[in-house]
Fold this sequence. Notes:
The structure holds two protein chains of two kinds. By secondary structure, chain A is mostly helical.
Amino acid sequence: MTIECTPSDTILAERIRARDEAAFELLYVRYEAALTRHAAAIVREETVAQDLVQETFLRVWTRVDQWNGLGSFKSWLYQIATHLAFNHLRSLRRHPHQSLLGEEERPADEWSEAAELFAPNWLVDTTTLGPDAAYEQSEAQSRLRRVIAGLPAEKQEVFHLVHEMELSIRDTASRLGIPEGTVKSRLHYAEKGFNAAWQNQIHESEE
Amino acid sequence: MTPHPTAINFTDRFEAPWHRASFDRFLNQRLPELLAERLPLAGYTAHQSEGDTCHVTVEIAINSHTLVLDYPDLPQPNEQGTFRIEDQPHIVVPFASQEELDKAEVKCVGERLYDYIAARLGKAPADIAWDESTARAFLPLDTWFAQFLQGAAQWLDTTNWHARYTHLRRILVVNDFYGKEEHEGMDAGLSRSLRAGSARVIAPGQMGRVDPFETPEGAYIGHIFTIAVGAEIRDGKIIITDARPEAGLGQNALMVPFLEHGDANRLLMGINMMRQGLVSPTAEPAWVQTGHEPRDAGADFWCGRNLLTAFVAWGEGCVEDGLILSESCAQHLNYPYPAEPGDKLANRHGLMGVVSQILPDDQMPHLADGTPVEIAYSFAGIHARMSFSLVREAVMGRIAHAEGQPAVVPPFHAPSAEEMRARLVSAGLPETGMERLRAGKDGAEMPYPSSVGWVYWYRLAHLARRKLQVIGAAQTGEIEARPYPVPPTNEASQGLSELEIAILRQVGALQIAREALTVRSVRWQGGDSASPYFCALARRLTAAGLVLDLKEDGLSVRFQSPEGEALQLARPLPHPWLREQFIERVGPPPAEIGPVARQAYAALVQVNDRLVRWLVAQTSTVHSTYLDNLMAQLETRFAAYLEALLPPDALKVYERQAFNGRAVIAPGVGLHLDQVGLPDEIIQGLFSDRAAREGVAPDDLLANSWVIIHRAPSAAPTALVAFHPLRAAGPAIRLHPLACTWLNADFDGDQVSVHLPLSQDAQAEAGQRLSVAGHLKRDPALVESLTPPLEGVWGLAYRSLTPEGRREIAEILQMPESGVAAPFPVTGMAAALRALLEREGSEVAMQAAQALAQMGYAACRASGASLSPFPVSQVPLPPQPEGDERETWESYVETCSEAVLSGRDYANPNLGPQLLAAAVRPRSRRSLPFLLVPFNPMNDAEGNLVILRHALAEGRTARELFTTVAGARPGLARLIFEYERILQEPTAPDAGALSLLARARRARRPGIVFARAAASGEIDPLTDVETRLLVGLV
Lengths: 207, 1034
């Protein structure tokens, strides 16, 4: 007699890595409630905890590759939730108007400040922003889209792929069929042009 | 006099040690306990400085070592219990869990701060990689302290000693604070308990613990208290430390002399007003004290002056609580500048009034020895307000003045009438406490003797000059730029709301209403064709995907995806206002609307972004609970946003107005009934613009202009009355006393706003519809309320006792002399005015009403009539019954009341003036017996029947006084709640109207009305008057 065993977390992780949405479903059903309690114990607000858990599962799906397979998958899950919960607590300490992106989150590479501000969502992590900041960010993003629309076509494409589609430079290069160096230089010029255009937008919006 | 047994052991220190004790326990005991529960605590120290901060160090265990978190400057209360925030003293008021204060659990600052932190501090998971940043994010003690104080600390009321002291000993009943988030604060907790009807305004457990009088005269009645001097908060309970009756009073009540001769409601007002006394370097101690005054309270304890006060109605300026001061008196009350008309004076008994006139000393009443009186305060209101204690204070002040040292009158140990008479005699003063005054330095002796003596009066901190506001052309500096200059939106502008618009519509003043909703609105943009109200509504609907189309012949609405900055929804959603309609984009909230909608929008954006990212990362269509949850959340947040975008209140009218002003009112002496006196600043603000354009002086415009006086709440059409403006000295608006009833105003500090209609049409409308004549034309019955104030009625009654007087009255009213009864009742005057109006028209009736009032004031002024400090019934009263039967006592009270009121010797200074008032005016008739007859038996706070054996003139025992407080408070609370309810009651001015806007304005979900109108293609033909006004169509 064979019994359809409930798959272990590790098996689920492997399947999720293979883009198996049924496995994700199972994982979600298995841990959603417990993770919500876990997050709520840290942030002490039920609705925030629910948001954090949704974000946790989104990251599980989009970044399952980052799980190194060493520790238990469950503890990785909890770590993400804990991490997001602490990010949230940090954001509460900051004045929401002072910075859209906390210092802890600021990428340490050579990206320009304006590009940083409008880094992809997974970097900005809107769950860590207060409502006002999230609102400002949504406004800023729509301004951003107008700025990008004013860039030359090929720069727009690179900027779009890297900044909005969250692709790495390598993926961008392969997707566009151009060398990585070209991606970097286009990105550089895109950002330069972007900065100038962005500054204009800022001034307009302040007037 | 009875020597006071023992003064309350009251020192000059701030006796509210519970604030600091509670904080110290929190800091040294409860906080470390909480920390140990929630995180791996390895060490904790708290060091309290001498000053305003403490230093806390928290050590967290991390494997083999510890992480030290330092919080060097956490705020702490000083020994008095106050925090210093931005260099201002602040206090955190303790909460009590229920009205039964003997059972209530009390949370002071330490317990409240503990709750605040316990609700926010998480439980640290075991595997946290602690570092400084993580630990500070987890335990932001400094932020929490600051945020807690931001929400919970109140700016300490430092108006004067009484204010400060009371604030330190205040306690707030929040019925259900348990299980509720601290940050909801007192308003939320309180409004919840008021809504739930769980509010009890008095309870037995309050006796001895909190002052029975001191509670707000507003919605917080029965919820905010002052800890009695014989009680304190200890270990979360209010305990009684001194059970004597006087120790059950608060410090402010302890300082009311002759407390047992006063009325509970008035004492409540008097005690509340003590906190508002203006501190003055020229203040002096009272000549009549209670012996409980703190010996070393500091410079701001005494706020007032002993002023020679005659209880006489000294002419038109002395009506409806108006006060007349001598010039010397105004010079005594000289800080920060001499008293001026509109300034409010109060005494310890709860009677108050605004200064109406400042007369040369020579024109004031004079004592027999030639001393001019300093304040004239009408006798007429005292027995109606049952503030008999005031008259006793005056007489005792006179005794003290003659004896050369302050008199001490402790609560419940006041000297009897016999004792006071004896002391008057031995001081060489008239035994009656009254004397015949001269009507001015060279005037004749007046027929009635008057009560006169020294009363301790103080100026209230609400100086008239500081209340004066005006917003008009002069504030904008844009006279050239626009036809109607738009002033900046600011607090000075007065608003017009639904109620006033409804009145304007009701009386047919449509041009005025239209101006109020368009060109006089501070939101008006010169070029708009639609009203600011309509534009703001359209902006909200646009964000929700609905566009309003306003054309001359119709108003319609259609679905249209918002353009510009809008949120692209991850998936089209059914519109919450019309499920069949799907919507793909939603707009951000218009900039002018509040944080609720902004936060709801941000929450929507957040979940929408997450959904976008999920959908991008998805490849298959396998069922996903995760996706279902996200979608459900998106829909919920979408609906919540739309609800926040268009709540029913968004359709309520409230337009802040330009071309208006506001000030305290004072009686206008010598005005015509269609005139109002305005301060220079208001004249300048309202008229300088037009004067500049027409090249004339502002005063040249006044005679032919109308201004509208508005007094809130607008319960009747006469809340708006138009007058011709005159320039009047001083910072008060001078209102004709006959207009008081219409505007529901009196002169005890009431304020009104004044509006200038701009166009010729609106000016004409003001004259035709809102002037006194205009109101009379619409509603002739209103003439009956143009009978004089009490002083005038009394004067006419007095004159009607003689044939000459009756002849004169009959001439004024154009009626046969035989129709004037002796004495002539107010109902007779009203009927005669009504008949005159119907016969001769409004102009004649108005002239008659004024002439009648002038005759009454003059007669009252010349009479010297007053209230005796030692009144006795003119008809002997039966002896008091034996036993404690309710029915027996009720019969006794009734019998005695009739006996007192059967007195007819009006010329007798003993009660004669009061009997005359009672004979002509029903309200005076009701209140007079209380001076001499006990109240009906009442239940005390515990529900026990208490026989009230003593009348006001005799003075009540502590038990009797506390019982009357218990009896009075629920009635007062009912009045207050009823008033609040009327103010908050949603007004559907045109309940029957079927127009689109009218339906939406009545709806709980107005968005649904608009959405369905869009789906059905409804076109509102704009025939409804209200709709046309609201959208700004002519």
